[in-house]
Amino acid sequence: MKSRGRVARALVSIALVGVASAATAGVSMPEVKSTPSATGRDYLVFYADGARDTTARAVTAAGGVVRSRDDRLGYLVVRAAAPEPLGEISSVVGVTPDLPIGSVANAPLAGPPPRMSGGANAVAGEPLSDRQWDMRMIGATPTGSYATARASHQVLVGVIDTGIDGRHPDIAPNFNRQLSRNFVTDQPNDVNGKKFDGACEVAGCKDPADVDDDGHGTHVASTIGSPINGIGIAGVAPDVSLVNLRAGTDSGYFFLKPTMDALAYAADVGVDVVNMSFYVDPWTFNCTANPQDSRADQLAQRGILAGMRRAAAYAHQRGVTMITAIGNSGSDLGKPSKDAASPDYPLGAEKERTVDNTCLNVPTELPGVIAVSSVGPSGLKAAYSDYGIEQTDIAAPGGDVFDSGTSVIGERREILAAAPEAMLRAGHQIDAAGNPADASVVRDCQGGSCSYYQYLEGTSMAAPHVTGIAALIISRFGVPGKGGLAMDPNQVEKLLYASATPTSCPTPRAFKYGTATQTCDGTKERNGFFGHGIANAARAATVTP
């Protein structure tokens, strides 16, 4: 697991800080007179409402080739020599390079699922539950939410991440193999030949939809919905269905098209809630007209904003509750002044530029998206967690190695959740005999087989606690709908906040984390560190509309 200081990237424990094609099926394209011999690269060209055909003709006149389109989100995939001529078309609102990572893939799964024991009737109290200070903090315990609300298998939780190890013993019982999809193609090297994802593990570089070579998505999924089965740990919603919506590369990048594809697919198949512990690469902050950016970069950022706004709106209108990690840079997102981390692709392309509050981090600052900040065992906001009175909606345990809380086993102040064995072996974090070779790794052996878990911290770890609680709420109040149950995301959000534990700003408000000072604005009912409060599964199990 790498940590590049990217928003919503999990921090290593020692660190501080087949649907896309269906969109065009049965819809006639406007006549275009382009030829397939056009050179250049592919761009996502977002057009104004009702301007698809006009835009397609103008693209052709400008020398571009329309290769495909997505009518749901209003864009064309265009092969062109450069973005600037496309950006001059009056009906175009953004032109973003289709970075060579993602396309929808109904990738085959790696064989049948393993036979598992346990399930809903297993005794609450998992072998490693004494290490889960995070679950005790939010009341996800045998005497708390587990007693009355464990979610329902009819609730579909989509994990938009680096993948899910669907064969992990503590995920497999709740893994929905039928609906899981991989929306990315691994890329060994970036466009300049620098190592990016590394060697492909499978032919065609498309991993099966039950594989996670990074580990980030598996950890997230485990926190949401590891079952109560006598193995390892339990998640917040131990009876939920987990759907892998992979939009992240092995190296942990999330580019626009696969992210939009994942959100649109979630909406189309009836997913109830999605977890998004990432930001959309390559820009930490997307500005529409930053004078320090080239015209091409301005168009690209406009495209990301247009595309993600449309994808989020499409999902929200179709009943998808969206939860995101707020980020790990320890900064007030409402008062940004400098961005030195963008663009982060190709590798080494970063430059320092001045930004302001008109420049947005996505998906955190999108309408309809619930942003989660992180707290440590003491309940204090983690030093690395981003914050902001406009941005923070709710808080949850994400870990903090520098927190003063002591009610944790072995003084570990991070979050323990499932880890793929193959990933740990590849990273030499377990030895040839299967013994942990890294202090962050824990092994649990039951019935002759072993499973692995890892301590990680970050807002990536906080968000899935809230996602799990959202699943509990949907299980309680959802009605029959597409995919199983359905519930208005606005009502889910309302009950999430109503069940949270209101938490005041620290005293003094200008709180010192070592030599850094972070200022908390707002009231106990809503502030920049904790939003509406710290998420509470036990209260969500009893809250009423």
TrEMBL record:
<keyword id="KW-0732">Signal</keyword>
<keyword id="KW-0378">Hydrolase</keyword>
<dbReference type="InterPro" id="IPR023827">
    <property type="entry name" value="Peptidase_S8_Asp-AS"/>
</dbReference>
<dbReference type="InterPro" id="IPR022398">
    <property type="entry name" value="Peptidase_S8_His-AS"/>
</dbReference>
<keyword id="KW-0720">Serine protease</keyword>
<dbReference type="Pfam" id="PF00082">
    <property type="entry name" value="Peptidase_S8"/>
</dbReference>
<dbReference type="GO" id="GO:0004252">
    <property type="term" value="F:serine-type endopeptidase activity"/>
</dbReference>
<feature type="signal peptide">
    <location>
        <begin position="1"/>
        <end position="25"/>
    </location>
</feature>
<keyword id="KW-0645">Protease</keyword>
<dbReference type="InterPro" id="IPR023828">
    <property type="entry name" value="Peptidase_S8_Ser-AS"/>
</dbReference>
<comment type="similarity">
    <text>Belongs to the peptidase S8 family.</text>
</comment>
<dbReference type="InterPro" id="IPR036852">
    <property type="entry name" value="Peptidase_S8/S53_dom_sf"/>
</dbReference>
<feature type="active site" description="Charge relay system">
    <location>
        <position position="216"/>
    </location>
</feature>
<protein>
    <submittedName>
        <fullName>Serine protease</fullName>
    </submittedName>
</protein>
<dbReference type="InterPro" id="IPR000209">
    <property type="entry name" value="Peptidase_S8/S53_dom"/>
</dbReference>
<feature type="domain" description="Peptidase S8/S53">
    <location>
        <begin position="153"/>
        <end position="517"/>
    </location>
</feature>
<feature type="active site" description="Charge relay system">
    <location>
        <position position="161"/>
    </location>
</feature>
<dbReference type="GO" id="GO:0006508">
    <property type="term" value="P:proteolysis"/>
</dbReference>
<dbReference type="InterPro" id="IPR050131">
    <property type="entry name" value="Peptidase_S8_subtilisin-like"/>
</dbReference>
<feature type="active site" description="Charge relay system">
    <location>
        <position position="460"/>
    </location>
</feature>
<dbReference type="InterPro" id="IPR015500">
    <property type="entry name" value="Peptidase_S8_subtilisin-rel"/>
</dbReference>
